[in-house]
Every structure is written in C-alpha cells, then in structure tokens.
C-alpha cells in the first residue's frame, strides 16, 4: 500500500542551541520536527516555540497518568502550539478520551492532535514478557491500537513491524507515526524493531521519525535530503 509518507526529524539534543542548529539544517527536507523528553526537560516550552519557527512540532512527551492529570497536562501544553502530543495508550481508554477532549477544548480547530504510543520500539518479545505482557509486540500493539483509536486518538506511534498489521486491522483512518527507522546500513542503536524509510513508505506509514542517522551525520542537511528523497521515490 503506497501513501504519502513524510519525514519527522528527532531533535534529541541536551540544549536548545544544538536543537535549533539541527532544525535549521533539516527543516528544508522535513515536515515535522520532534521535541522529545530530553530537550523539553532541559528547555521547557521555549523549545516548542522556537523549534516551531522552523517546522510544526511533534511534542513527544508520552503522557501517562490518571485521566484528570493527563487532561490538565494537555491543556497546559496546547498553548505552546504543538501539532502533535504523544500519550501512552497503556493509560487506558478513559485517559485517551480525556486527552482528546482537553485538546479539543484548548485548541479548537487548531488543536494539537493526540498520538497514542503503543509499544516502545526498544521493546522486543522478551522485554515485554518481563513486564507481564504475553503474546509478543504485534498482539500488544494491536490491542492498544484498537483501544486508543476507539477512545478518540488521532493516530498511533508504532514500530515498523506493526504498520501493516495496524492498517489491516484499522484501515486508513489513524495516522501512523513510526520511529525506529534507519537507512540501509545504519546502526540500529537502541531500537529493537527497525526498517528502512522505503519499506515504511510502502507499508502505509504517514510519518517516519529519524534522529541519529541525521543529527549525528557529518552533514545533517544532506542526510535529511537523502531520507526525504527515499520516501518520495
């Protein structure tokens, strides 16, 4: 299944100056820029505001708490203007619904979209089993994907290996954002379930999230251009 797939560059930097340099280099080739926990913890809302000058922001804070607390966090984050906010689908249907409701009330038509994280891409079957989850990553991802979309999530974060099963199960509706994407020949780093950009574009992903293969490259702008070109091929 071929569909238009965009590049989101993960700005996993310890400070805003580094992140802005990466953002400026990658922005011509990227549709989204990710502000994750490291950068947000170091720089707070200013990181979102300043990175948003380059491209819309995917705010990857993976909220996971009781529904009232997550709703309050979404209300607090929405005025920063992120295009997407992540929550953990494992927080349950009531938490997902509370996040969606808070986003709608806080942002109106321009509200942030809610992305539900299914199973972290660093986890494989053995790691899930250690936490008491039986059946492996695909089964758990599908369980959480159905729960989250049914509760109002706009999209899902999943590993490359679950894109096709989610599309088969849930169709074209939810946006699928896929970390753990690596160009052919790149190191997997701490990702347990990876694929190439071309594979994800063909499988039905809407966005691929790429960090270190771009930000650690000798020429981040050229690395971003190459991956964007592979997605468009």
Topology record:
Elements: E1 6-10, H1 16-26, E2 32-36, H2 37-43, H3 45-51, E3 57-63, H4 67-77, E4 84-88, H5 93-107, E5 113-117, H6 125-130, H7 137-150, E6 155-157, H8 163-170, E7 175-178, H9 197-203, E8 207-210, H10 212-215, H11 220-232
Parallel strand pairs: 1-2, 1-8, 2-3, 3-4, 4-5, 5-6, 6-7, 7-8
**Strand adjacency order, main sheet:** 1-2-3-4-5-6-7-8
Number of beta strands: 8
Q: Gyration radius, to the nearest Å?
A: 17 Å
Q: What's the N-to-C terminus distance?
A: 14 Å
DSSP summary: helix tally: 11
Mean pLDDT: 90
List the domain count as a whole number: 1
**Residue ranges: pLDDT <50 for 5 or more in a row?**
none
Helix content: 40-55%
| Class inferred from helices and paired strands | alpha/beta
Residue fraction in strands: 15-25%
Query: How is the main sheet built?
Result: 8 strands, parallel, barrel
How would you describe this structure to a colleague?
- There is one protein chain.
- 44% of the residues lie in helices and 16% in strands.
- The chain has helices at residues 16-26, 37-43, 45-51, 67-77, 93-107, 125-130, 137-150, 163-170, 197-203, 212-215, 220-232; strands at residues 6-10, 32-36, 57-63, 84-88, 113-117, 155-157, 175-178, 207-210.
- Helix 7 packs across helix 8 (163-170).
- The chain is globular, with a radius of gyration of 17 Å.
- The model has no long low-confidence stretch (mean pLDDT 90).
Defining traits:
eight-stranded parallel barrel; 233 residues; TIM Barrel
A few lines on this structure:
With 233 residues, the protein is of the alpha/beta class. The chain is built from 11 helices and 8 strands. β1 (6-10), α1 (16-26) and β2 form a beta-alpha-beta unit.
């Amino acid at each position: 299944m071929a569909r238009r797939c965009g590049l989101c560059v993960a700005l996993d930097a310890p400070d805003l100056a580094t992140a802005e340099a990466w953002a400026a280099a990658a922005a011509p080739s990227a549709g989204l820029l990710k502000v994750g926990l490291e950068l947000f913890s170091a720089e707070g809302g200013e990181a979102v505001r300043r990175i948003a000058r380059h491209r819309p922001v995917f705010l990857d804070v993976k909220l996971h708490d009781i529904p009232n607390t997550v709703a309050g966090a979404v209300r607090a984050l929405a005025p920063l203007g992120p295009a997407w906010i992540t929550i953990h689908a494992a927080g349950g249907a009531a938490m997902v619904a509370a996040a969606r409701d808070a986003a709608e009330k806080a942002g109106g038509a321009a509200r942030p979209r809610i992305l539900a994280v299914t199973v972290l891409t660093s986890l494989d079957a053995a790691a899930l089993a250690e936490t008491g989850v039986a059946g492996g990553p695909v089964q758990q991802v599908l369980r959480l994907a159905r729960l989250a979309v049914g509760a109002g999530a706009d999209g899902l974060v999943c590993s490359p290996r679950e894109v096709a099963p989610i599309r088969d199960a849930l169709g074209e509706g939810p946006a699928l954002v896929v970390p753990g994407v690596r160009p052919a020949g790149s190191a997997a780093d701490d990702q347990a379930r990876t694929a190439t950009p071309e594979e994800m574009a063909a499988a039905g992903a809407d966005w691929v999230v790429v960090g270190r293969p771009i930000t650690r490259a000798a020429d981040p702008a050229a690395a971003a251009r190459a991956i964007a070109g592979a997605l468009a091929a």
